[in-house]
Amino acid sequence: xxxxxxxxxxxxxxxxxxxxxxxxxxxxxxxxxxxxxxxxxxxxxxxxxxxxxxxxxxxxxxxxxxxxxxxxxxxxxxxxxxxxxxxxxxxxxxxxxxxxxxxxxxxxxxxxxxxxxxxxxxxxxxxxxxxxxxxxxxxxxxxxxxxxxxxxxxxxxxxxxxxxxxxxxxxxxxxxxxxxxxxxxxxxxxxxxxxxxxxxxxxxxxxxxxxxxxxxxxxxxxxxxxxxxxxxxxxxxxxxxxxxxxxxxxxxxxxxxxxxxxxxxxxxxxxxxxxxxxxxxxxxxxxxxxxxxxxxxxxxxxxxxxxxxxxxxxxxxxxxxxxxxxxxxxxxxxxxxxxxxxxxxxxxxxxxxxxxxxxxxxxxxxxxxxxxxxxxxxxxxxxxxxxxxxxxxxxxxxxxxxxxxxxxxxxxxxxxxxxxxxxxxxxxxxxxxxxxxxxxxxxxxxxxxxxxxxxxxxxxxxxxxxxxxxxxxxxxxxxxxxxxxxxxxxxxxxxxxxx
Length: 499
Description:
Family: Belongs to the FGGY kinase family.
Keywords: ATP-binding, Disulfide bond, Kinase, Nucleotide-binding, Rhamnose metabolism, Transferase
CATH architecture of the largest domain: 2-Layer Sandwich
CATH class of the largest domain: Alpha Beta
Oligomer: single chain
Low-confidence stretches: 1-14, 492-499
CATH superfamily of the largest domain: ATPase, nucleotide binding domain
Strand content: 15-25%
Protein name: Carbohydrate kinase FGGY
Number of strands: 22
GO cellular component, one term: cytosol
Distance between the termini: 28 Å
GO molecular function: ATP binding; glycerol kinase activity; rhamnulokinase activity
């Protein structure tokens, strides 16, 4: 395992509290993390804000200007809260979703609001890219799962990149805060332009596609510092100008997997994880990528994790399906309580219709209940236009997808899994966790909910010297403070452990 940089050691920089900027595709928050090797990590949310795609200039984009304004507002609040409690913010870490980027010019100006991966523009670029770079060759080097919105295809749609540099979303935020242009490695590994074995940019692919080798800035590893806040930014948020922005697992799944409270000795084998939120990321943690043709055909990805690990996973559908259904129902005047809706879904008999939850058909926002019912009709079955029935279909479909993915991962990586850890928002969904235990025939350990922020904070804390050790030691710290629930297969939730 690699050793984290200790850029923020020193008597004048004794570890304090850590600010985690954690932004997902539908919401973001700024949190303060306090770390104790004995009692775990405590999180305090100081600022929440909505996020989502908007129609700008004929495409689905992120309103990055508004997003960055919320980040600054959150950091201002974090500084005020910490100061009010006699604490000092030791550093700031940023994680977001993957693949999307902003283009900046030599003066640091954003050329346009960044496109969202949910925009369909990259679909037409897939075939031209594959005519230049054979998919087998791409996979043998990058190990990246094929998704039509991967960065490599998005870049192929750009009309003119002359003089511009691409910064992935967390790196773009860090650049505006510090002035440093870097690309954090866990997110770089999602671009389709990263060598999975060498851990470096696949510059031969950039050249083949007519992209400059310096289109992306140099790589930075989790635990290394981008740099200190620019004076204007420090004044804006009320923090000392020496406050460092530290690279974490900036792909939110990398931070979440780092916080999986796994004990392989106690669990009886390797563990699988499901990072369950808007998307579901289902896979294993490995030391080396799996670059076989069978792995490519199964559409598994090999992305970097903290400490140079490999997140061997498949990206499948997630709770986006349910949240989009809720949005549609609300627009029709029906706003069911989520707890009651899930209880009604749980009361329905098993064996109902299912959909392929990771079908690209469900990527874009639209009337999700009707799209789900249409997908069921195409299988020859009928799904009632009833929120409980549609919700149960989503939950059954996700659990079945998790089980298929786990079985494929075990076979392709030659691993045997003893337990499944579900982290993120989906860990609160008792129906989904129980169905996952039943479908995988493995115990499911649910929690922590805030795995991404916990992983973000712990990487910062280790860089500061507040904690030491590798991922097993970090995970023991997580487990010490986490509230976890265990679900046994083919039964009901039987244990709730408060650590």
